[in-house]
């Protein structure tokens, strides 16, 4: 039975509840994975989501920071979380759907502004987080799994508005791209978005700093949907809902979608 999945860094689920409801009402994905919820779990506004059919939720939360949640129309079982790099942050949750598919929802640390692990603790934490993700996938090889989230890295040259200008900018530096590739390889993850849309510039994030984000179009593809090889061929219909970046009081990220025939 096919299901559609979306991932979205919402940048405060309580502040942006209206646009979450708009997405659920207009696009109706079966599963919506949110990052940067910035809310304790018991403060997430679930009533409106449930009224639209999203009666299942698993989440990890913190007051004002981080936070991940999975909203689902279908039953989903909470199967745990990992505290990579021992940060004590709510950055990962895993759930299993009724068809046996495991969904990992990640919010990888952004990494601050200086791409030097010795000078910038946040950048060091980001690299350590990715290293521990890689080691976990090496040790516990995922199967029948989908990994989504704000991975805070735009890996390809056409995942950023200007490859050369961003080589020394956190999110597109060679060391980050290399470590993301190692993490992906460790689980043999397939980038579903780029499997479907192999060519051309593709972005899911545009800075709030741009006076006219749409006209400037200085974006980066920071949000990802991956799948294990045993189900990657079932993934299709990938898209990024760019228009959501222009909704009222928007997140600086746009939702990323894929459908799986499983």
Q: What's the gist of this structure?
A:
The chain has 7 helices and 14 strands. It is α+β, with helices and mostly antiparallel strands.
Write up what this structure looks like.
- The protein has 262 residues and is of the alpha+beta class.
- It has one domain: Endonuclease/exonuclease/phosphatase (Deoxyribonuclease I, Chain A).
- The protein contains 7 helices and 14 strands.
- The protein has helices at 17-27, 46-51, 121-139, 174-186, 192-196, 213-216, 229-232, and strands at 2-9, 31-35, 56-60, 68-72, 76-80, 92-97, 102-107, 145-150, 190-191, 205-206, 219-220, 223-227, 235-240, 256-261.
- It has a 6-stranded mixed β-sheet. A 6-stranded mixed β-sheet has the order 5-6-7-8-12-9.
- It is globular and about 45 Å long.
Mean pLDDT: 98
What is the radius of gyration computed over CA atoms, rounded to a whole number of angstroms? 17 Å
Main sheet makeup: 6 strands, mixed
Number of strands: 14
């Amino acid at each position: 039975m096919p299901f559609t999945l979306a991932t979205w860094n919402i940048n405060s689920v309580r502040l942006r509840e209206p646009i979450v409801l708009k997405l659920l009402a207009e696009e109706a994905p079966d599963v919506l994975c949110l990052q940067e919820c910035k809310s304790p779990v018991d403060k997430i506004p679930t009533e409106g989501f449930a009224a639209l059919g999203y009666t299942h939720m698993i989440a990890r939360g913190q007051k004002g920071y981080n936070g991940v949640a999975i909203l689902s129309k279908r039953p989903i079982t909470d199967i745990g979380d990992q505290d990579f790099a021992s940060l004590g942050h709510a950055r990962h949750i895993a759930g299993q759907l009724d068809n046996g598919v495991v969904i990992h929802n990640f919010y990888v640390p952004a990494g601050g502004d200086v791409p030097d692990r010795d000078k910038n603790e946040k950048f060091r934490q980001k690299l350590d987080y990715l290293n521990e993700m890689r080691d976990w996938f090496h040790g516990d090889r995922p199967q029948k799994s989908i990994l989504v989230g704000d991975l805070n890295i735009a890996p390809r040259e056409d995942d950023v508005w200007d490859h050369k200008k961003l080589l020394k900018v956190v999110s597109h530096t060679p060391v980050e791209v290399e470590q993301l590739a190692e993490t992906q390889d460790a689980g043999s993850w397939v980038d579903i978005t780029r499997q479907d849309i192999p060519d051309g510039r593709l972005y899911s994030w545009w800075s709030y700093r741009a006076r006219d984000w749409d006209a400037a179009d200085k974006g980066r593809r920071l949000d990802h949907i991956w799948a294990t090889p045993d189900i990657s061929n079932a993934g299709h219909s990938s898209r990024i809902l760019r228009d959501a970046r222009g909704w009222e009081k928007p997140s600086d990220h746009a939702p990323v979608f894929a459908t799986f025939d499983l």
